[in-house]
C-alpha cells in the first residue's frame, strides 16, 4: 500500500463546506451538527446539497447565509443512490470554483477550525480511518486475507475532504468501473481510485486520525495520544456517551 507523504505549497487552497440534506425538518442531533459547523466553519462558504423540490426553510431559518445547490431527488432516496451522486462528475462539476470541498453529513461534528490547514496539506482525499470495520473483517472470515491485507483503511466519507478538480476528472476517467461498483462511494475512492487514478493522494492511518474519528472512537482517541481530531462522523451511532463527554470537557457545547 502506498501512502503519500505531506506536500505543502504556498498556494492558498479555497475550500467550501457541503452539507447533504434530505429531510425538511432538523432533529436535535442534526441541529447540534449544524450549530458546530456554523460556529467553527461559518466563515467559509457553506452549501446545502438538497433534493430538487424539497423545502429548506428550516435550514435557512437557522442559518440564512447558507447557499443551496439542487440535485435530482432520486439521489437522496437511499445510500446506494447517494453513492451514485458522489461518484458522478456532475456533482463535482457544480463546485469547480473551489479547490476543496468538505463533505459534512448531518451526523458529523467539527471541533477545530483546521479546514484550511487540511486543505493546504494537498491530499486528494481525507476521511477517518476504519478501525476494526466489519466489512474488512469479512474478507478474513471468508479466507480472503490476501484482499484484506491490501485494503486501504483510510477514507470514511461522512466527514471527508475532497480535491474537487481531481474528483471531477477521476469520475470521468473511472466511470466504467464506478458505474458497476457495488459498495459505498467512500470505499470506491479509498480503494479503487486510490490505486488506479494517477496522483490520488490519501494520508496514512495516523495522519487521518488527526482529521476524524468514526468507528471505535475510544480506541481512536488513545491511538491519537488522547487528542480530539478536527471532527468526527456518526457520533451518535458509535459511542454517543464518549462524544458527549468530549464535548462537555472541551466546552464545545453544553448538553441539557
Please characterize this protein's 3D structure:
Strands 3-2-1-4-7-6 form a 6-stranded mixed sheet. Strands 5-9-8 form a 3-stranded mixed sheet. The longest helix has 14 residues, at 28-41. The protein is of the alpha/beta class and 256 residues long. The chain has helices at 28-41, 57-62, 79-85, 89-93, 115-119, 134-141, 145-148, 164-173, 175-178, 185-196, 205-211, 217-223, 240-249; strands spanning 15-20, 45-51, 67-71, 100-104, 108-110, 125-126, 159-163, 212-213, 231-233. It has a single domain (15-249), classed as Spore Coat Polysaccharide Biosynthesis Protein SpsA, Chain A. The protein is built from 13 helices and 9 strands. This is DUF5672 domain-containing protein.
Give the assembly state of these chains.
single chain
Question: Structural class from helices and strands?
Answer: alpha/beta
Helix content: 25-40%
The N- and C-terminal alpha carbons lie at a distance of 45 Å
Structural domain tally:
1
Strand order of the largest sheet: 3-2-1-4-7-6
Mean pLDDT comes to 90
Named CATH architecture: Alpha-Beta Complex
Kindly report the CATH topology: Spore Coat Polysaccharide Biosynthesis Protein SpsA, Chain A
Amino acid at each position: 500500500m502506498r501512502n503519500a507523504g505531506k506536500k505543502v505549497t504556498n498556494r492558498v487552497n479555497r475550500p467550501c463546506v457541503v452539507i447533504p440534506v434530505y429531510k425538511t425538518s432538523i432533529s436535535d442531533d442534526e441541529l447540534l451538527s449544524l450549530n458546530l459547523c456554523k460556529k467553527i466553519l461559518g466563515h467559509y462558504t457553506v452549501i446545502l446539497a438538497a433534493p430538487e423540490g424539497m423545502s429548506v426553510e428550516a435550514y435557512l431559518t437557522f442559518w440564512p447565509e447558507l447557499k443551496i445547490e439542487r440535485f435530482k431527488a432520486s439521489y437522496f432516496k437511499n445510500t446506494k443512490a447517494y453513492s451514485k451522486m458522489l461518484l458522478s462528475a456532475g456533482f463535482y462539476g457544480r463546485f469547480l470554483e473551489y479547490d476543496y470541498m468538505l463533505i459534512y453529513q448531518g451526523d458529523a461534528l467539527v471541533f477545530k477550525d483546521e479546514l484550511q490547514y487540511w486543505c493546504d496539506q494537498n491530499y486528494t482525499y481525507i476521511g477517518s480511518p476504519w478501525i476494526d470495520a466489519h466489512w474488512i473483517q469479512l474478507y478474513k472470515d471468508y479466507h480472503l486475507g490476501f484482499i484484506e491485507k491490501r485494503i486501504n483503511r483510510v477514507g470514511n466519507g461522512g466527514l471527508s475532504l475532497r480535491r474537487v478538480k481531481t474528483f471531477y476528472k477521476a469520475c470521468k476517467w473511472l466511470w466504467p468501473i464506478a458505474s458497476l461498483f457495488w459498495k459505498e462511494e467512500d470505499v470506491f475512492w479509498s480503494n479503487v481510485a486510490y490505486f488506479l487514478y494517477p496522483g490520488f493522494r490519501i494520508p496514512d492511518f495516523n495522519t487521518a486520525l488527526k482529521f476524524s474519528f468514526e468507528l471505535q472512537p475510544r480506541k481512536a482517541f488513545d491511538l491519537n495520544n488522547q487528542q480530539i481530531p478536527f471532527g468526527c462522523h456518526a457520533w451518535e451511532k458509535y459511542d454517543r456517551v464518549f462524544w458527549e463527554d468530549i464535548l462537555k470537557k472541551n466546552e464545545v457545547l453544553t448538553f441539557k
